[in-house]
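seq as requested:
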Amino acid sequence: MATQVGGDRRPSTQRSSSPAARRGWGRWLLLPGGFALLTGLDAGLTLAGLPAPVPSDRVADLHGPLMVIGFLGTVIALERATALRLAWGFLAPALLGAGALTLALLPDPTLGRLLAIQGAGTAVVVQTVLWRRNADPAVAVGALAVVHLLAAALLLLRLPVAAVLPLLVAFIVTMIAAERVELARLAMPRGADGRLVALTGALALVAGAAILWPDAGGRALGVVLAGLTAWLIRHDVARRTIRATGLPRFAAAAMLAGYAWLLVAAAVLVVGGQPLGGAYDVVVHATFLGFAMSMVMAHAPVILPAVLHVRLPYRPWLYLPLVLLHLTLALRVVGHLVVAHLPDAHTAWLVGAAGNVAALLVFIAAAVLAVALGARAPRRRRQAQPGGRAGPPAAQAAQPHADGCAPSRRARSQPRPTAGSATVGEETAQDETAQGETAPGDPTPTPRERQP
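struct tokens:
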């Protein structure tokens, strides 16, 4: 029998929700996260002094929590809940999304912060249950990531966002590092799990130290962040799939660009210690725009089919928001670096800030267009088939592997998903995933799991 997501090998009758029910939940639970993203972008324009659709000084102060906890936290919690395949797991994205809604809509932020704490705590439980099903180090590192999220949500009750920035950085970097090892496990070297645990454990320690001793701790955070990023760049399958075509190349370009921005953030921390003023802006946006949002763009064609049960096929125009994001972020960073010497550089910073918002909005529009066109293609195939039944798409059936090589023996031994198998790892996602990657949330079975 095919290994279930997170090691869940119980019969489907023992699970607490049907695939059809979970299919609808994912779409509805993502709406508050999308609202948090749009509200956070509006708040970012207000903070930059640019015209905003709904200007509000109160919401502008919530820009960071809305983007990191409200949007990224909700999306990550939803993906993990889908991997859990239990109804109560969807409480995590529901609470995080509700927290984002109340933060944005209510004048008093207390209720929104409490909901975010409850959502982060539930996400910790979800990740812990996933680890108990399959004691995989990458899953344990994912649990450590959501512990950072919970700690940040707790501290935000008393501290400003700038004070808990190290924990927010550790949350997003640790979670994405765990996902990359889990997805690209077949390409990782022997002992990769142990190095991942060591590096992310060190990141957790220095993130805590950076809160207590901002200057020395900030420099240490930069050193560990650079080490973890260099290790990921060295072993990530993206270094090979960048030479492929189509979706694998697009995803690899987005991931490698994201790693580059994470190195920029690490360098600023090493040089400056506690980030202040322009350095703070560079660290925040290099991490959460250059790195995190680039990773979102890279993984969206794989994650969306799994979580929302909609097909997001690759289209060349997906490069437009990706290139726009990185070019405008570079303009923003350069504007900060030279503003002391060239007063006109502030204009470049403003253009970069506006371009960052435009890039994310263009990506949303491009993704919606790709989904709409992808939904029409199977309908046309069904109409073209005798009797109205569609066969397997010829393009997918004949699609070569990402780097033109046949899959490894271990990769060939992985069973294809069947009806009623794991929600995460849809056939469309697996067909378009690069060599060496498995479906998100579907770690390679351990020797214990392979036994009958």
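Residues 40 and 63 are 5 Å apart (CA to CA).
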